[in-house]
Structures are given as C-alpha cells and as structure tokens.
Amino acid sequence: MKKIVFALAATLTMTAATGAMAEDKFKACFIYVGSKTDGGWTQAHEVGRQYAQDKLGDKVETVALENVPEGPDAERAIERFARSGCGIIFTTSFGFMDSTIAVAEKFPDVKFEHATGYKTAPNVTTYNSRFYEGRYIIGQIAGKMSKTGVAGYIASFPIPEVVMGINGFLTGARSVNPDFKLKVVWVNSWFDAGKEADAAKALIDQGVDIITQHTDSTGPMQVAEERGIKAFGQAFDQITAGPNSQLTAIVDTWGPYYEKQIKAAMDGTWKGGQSTWDGLKDGILAMAPYTNMPDDVKAMAEETQAKIESGELHPFTGPINKQDGSVWLKEGETSDDGTLLGMNFYVEGVDDKLPQ
Amino acid sequence: MDIAQNILLTIMTAATPLLIAAIGELVVERSGVLNLGVEGMMVIGAVCGFAATLLTGSPWLGMLAAIVAGALISLLFGVLTLSLAANQVATGLSLTLLGLGLSGMIGESFVGSAGIKLPSLSIPGLSEIPLVGRLVFGQDPIFYLSLLLTFGVAWFLFRTRAGLTLRAIGDNHASAHALGIDVIRIRYLAVMFGGACAGLAGAHLSLVYTPQWVENMTAGRGWIALALVVFASWRPWRVLGGAYLFGAVSIGQLHAQALGIGVPSQFLSALPYLATVVVLVIISRDRRLTLMNTPASLGQPFVPDR
C-alpha cells in the first residue's frame, strides 16, 4: 500500500515541479530521494544546489525534484528532466544508479552525474565524498571522551558505504584507546526519527556513553541531549537539536563541486566516465565546530583534521585487524579505494555480526 | 534494575501513538466506515501540534491544536465519503497523500527548530519508587490519556446505548436507518473522533516521542495502526495488547542487536511484523468468530433513500 502512495505522491510532485522554463539559460537539474527539508542528506544537496545557483547567477537555471522513489519512478523522472532540456542532471542517491545509466544511454547529449554509485558511462560521471575521513576524526574524539570505552552506532543498511563508516569510526577510536568497543544497531531505514531515537535509548540503556549515527534524522541527538550524553551530528550541523551534546558533525558540502561541474558543462570542459571521490581537503565535506569538549581533545581533533587534509594521514593505515583477528592491513600499509568501496567486513572491536 | 524500567518506558512510548491512532480508527470502523487516511491525519496532527507549540510556547495548546487539526481534516473525508458517498478506499488514500503534502508545506519553516516537550508527570516521592515509580507515576500525559481512551471506548461501545447504536450502524446501516437512526450524523461523529485521535497520536510523536518536526515523521505508523485494528478484530483491549506487543518486539529487537547476540539484524527488524502475522493467523483460525466481530457494512457507502 505504501508503495502505491509513494508512486502517486511522486507523480503529483512531478507535475508540480515542471513549470515554464526560459530556453536560453543553461539548465542544471537535481533529483532528490528525500525532502528538501529533511535536515540531513537531501537538504545538504539542496544547500549545494542553492550555493551553485548563487555563484553562477543569471547564466544558469537550477531545478530540483524531491521525494523521488528509487526504482521505475526514478527512471521516468530522470527521463522527463532529460526531455525538458536539462544540460546536466544530478541524481543524488545510490539507488538511482541503474536508472541514471538507463536514461543516459537514451540521451547521449545530456550530461549525468550520479552520487555515491560505481557505474559510469561516456556521459555519466560519479561523485562521492570520503565520509570516512570525518568518521575517523569523530572516532578519535569518542575514544578520548568516552568513560566506558564503548560507543553506540545507529546504522541504516549494511551497504559498503555504511560499513566503511563504522570501520572508520572504530579505527579512529582505537588509535587513542586500543581497547575501544563499538555496539551497532541497524534500524533498516534511512529516516525514521522515532525508531532512531529508540535505538539510541537501547544503546544508552546498555551502557554506551557516546552515540553516533549513519541515519538522517536528529532523533538520536535529541535523546542524547535528554539523557546527558555526547553525540555526533550527521550530514548536517545538528547543534540546535543537541546544544549540550553535539561534539561535532560531519557536514556534507556539495556546493563547490556542483558549481565546478555545472561550469564545466557550460564551457564544454565536462568529462564523462569519471569517478570523483573527494575528501576533506577538497571541501566536499567539512567538520562542524568542535564543541562540548576539553581543549586538549579539540586540539587533537584539529590536528588530525589538518593531517588528513594535507595527506599526511590516511585513516585506514595499518596495523588494522579484521573482526576475526586476521590481519587486514600490515604496519604502515594503507587501504586502496577499491577495498573501501566494496567493504564487506568489520575491523576488530565491533560488537556485532555484520549482516550479509 | 533501572534498565528494566527504562526498557519498559521505551516500549510504552513506542506503543502509545499506535494505540491512540488505532483506538480512534476502531471507532470509525465499528461505525462501518473505512478511513485509510490515518497516516495523513497523524502527520497533520504532528505538524500542527508542533507549530502551535512553537507559536504559543505551550505544548498543551499544541496538543489541543493537533486534536482539532486531526478532526478538521477528517471532516473533509467525512464530507466526501458520507455526504457525497465517494469511494472510501480511494478517499482515504488521497487523504494520506494530502496529509503528507500539506504537512510538509505547513512545517517548512519549522524544520530544524528545537521543540518543546510535553512535561511528564512527576509526583514527589511516588515517581521515585524503585522499579515502578516512573512507570506508574512518571509518564507523559498522552500516555495516561491513551489508557483512558481505551477504557472509555471499550465502555462506550459495549456498555452504553449509544455504543450499541454505533455498532448497529456498522453492522447494517440500512436496518439502522429504517429504525430511524441518523446514520450519516453518527458516522460523521465517529469519523471526527477517529481524526481527533490520529491528531493526538501525531502530537505524541512531535511533542513527546521526538520533540521535533521533520517531513514524513510518522514513518508508516498510521498504517501499522490500521493493521492493529484488524489484528485486534475490532476489540479495544486487544488493540491495547497488539500495540504493546508490537512496541515490545520492536524495542526488544533493538536491545538484542545492541547486545550483539549474532542474529541477523534484518530478521530482527522484521520480527515485529512477523509477530503480527503470527498472532493474526492464530486469532483468525476460527472464521466464524472473525466474521462475527467484523462490522458487516465496513467500507460500503450509504445513501439514504428519501
């Protein structure tokens, strides 16, 4: 039943979003999986779109379509954009991958950019952010700040992206406290404030004193604030939900990338078949202000951030063992991108069995 | 032992919005009307409750606003299905769509605002009793209201004349009409009661559960409430049992995960729904009993011949 509802909703939104367009401007179009005001993932893309629009001004018209469900509806929505004269189309969810590729084949003259996927084509480029760099930093902070030495992680779906985040966090924590442990709860949803809050309560009741999340609502942050423990924001600065709890947040800043790519598409320098995977140094992600922590922890976090930005430190540098104790990375060895993008194992210290 | 109390509190919080929305829908369905718009009315209640709380500074007024908003939006459903005899399934579904869209629009400027929580009861001495103090004397007002509602509806439906009339309409609206009962008027009242309950359930989400507003924050709870009504075979106390069972399994599985017991998390996440299906099968093994409880004219439009 829910599916029908969403399908109908998408059709309605679609009709509403395509108004009259001026023909002479270059048109950049965005497809969102969620709502523009979700306070997380999609809102970060929306802020990026507005940033690009402000920077490029009158020469460009940007259009966005929100709440597009993954699957056949996405393909229709993307195709509609392609037909309506969009010069470049950004599809901003992992689940739009196959739809993007399918539409791109039919419209070789339109440029496509797909976020967080791994399939490219002559007119499809992918882009992603090295979120694990931020996860490593917040892991280190957790390692210093936790008294119990156990943190709780509210996770969405067991895909490589999320597993990579969990491993990045724990590797950071273990770099300052080698005995650090991590409890993981999967809520099997990207966005359900109530369920995420329940997961946070369950973790806190079982003795964790720091929580972090890879889901999109501020539910867990509110619980942390209420119970007086510390937490990290996700995708967006969530300081208003946890003024006394938020230590920092990993903030997605897509704006400069969008500006750069739209500009490239306009002056003909855009290239297809690329896979961009930028990190802290490129400004595609940023850390919210370090708050609610002692000065020495703050100094450590800032130093780590600087080292990652300068390339001096790669978060996944050995020695790191897998969960079963076998060696993953030897002393001084760093992980290659391929392993990270297909990550399907935990590092040592995760108190959970990875769902396969 | 504090952990046991904490877990029980979490379960009760998770069950309360389901219980309230389901109790409201139970009354609607007992009167023979199927309103599939629970999710939409709930989300409208959530946003109006949150907005009114921020605008007036009082979560109590917010709660009131949510109830009124839920009742008003259900009135729209009433006009379409009762006065104009539109298809109830289609109208209910569009009410959900309307609710989700409208709430997003109303709530746009409130996204990210810090909410105000409805204060929990606190009785010096009593609320601090170990084990049960906070369970009995330290909960939010909507929780107590949910129990009161369940009791009230059970009493009303099966112990009062008005309740009998309502059930009679649900079972056979033509006969009820022939007896001189104003079917449409009573159904309007039932629909609005259902809307008010859904609004209150929404207020619980945005004022108690997670005091914030985000789009689609009901996340399918309205549909679960609808399922609970069938699950409970239209009996109020079974709705209570169902809501708490659902709450217990969904919170229990989170704790099982946090303990790291090694059962696949996908299975644990599906557990509340599996439990619902299993109980449903057990309850409905006797077809005759099930049919006896089902309002016979459920979902059928009624046009009084003049």
TrEMBL record, chain A:
Coiled-coil intervals: none
Transmembrane segments: none
Signal peptide span: 1-22
Entry GO CC: plasma membrane
Domain ABC transporter substrate-binding protein PnrA-like, chain residue ranges per copy: 27-306
Top-level division of the source organism's lineage: Bacteria
InterPro entries: ABC-Purine-Binding (IPR052910), PnrA-like (IPR003760)
Keywords, in A-Z order: DNA-binding, Signal
Molecular function per GO: DNA binding
A UniProt-annotated Pfam family: Bmp
Protein name: DNA-binding protein
TrEMBL record, chain B:
Presence of keyword Repressor: no
Topology term for the membrane: Multi-pass membrane protein
Alphabetic keyword roster: Cell membrane, Membrane, Transmembrane, Transmembrane helix
Localization, UniProt: Cell membrane
InterPro entries (UniProt xref): ABC_transp_permease (IPR001851)
Pfam families: BPD_transp_2 (PF02653)
Single annotated GO MF: transmembrane transporter activity
Broad class of where this protein is predominantly found: membrane
A GO cellular component entry from the record: plasma membrane
Name of protein: ABC transporter permease
